[in-house]
Design a protein that fits this description.
Blueprint: H1 21-27, H2 36-58
Length: about 60
Amino acid sequence: MPSAIGPHTRNPKPGYLYRGSKKRAAKLSAFEHLPLQFWLVIAIAAVMLALSMLLLRDS
């Protein structure tokens, strides 16, 4: 198995995932790691809930 440590890899030293991993992890908020499709599903569900509430209120 080839080693993932060297000048042309993302791992400059053993024990590090990649350079700046701690800085990037510190900048991420709780919601930034969620995929875009998750937010699309949430938005569609919110629109459907609002439309169903309007329909139920009118009837």
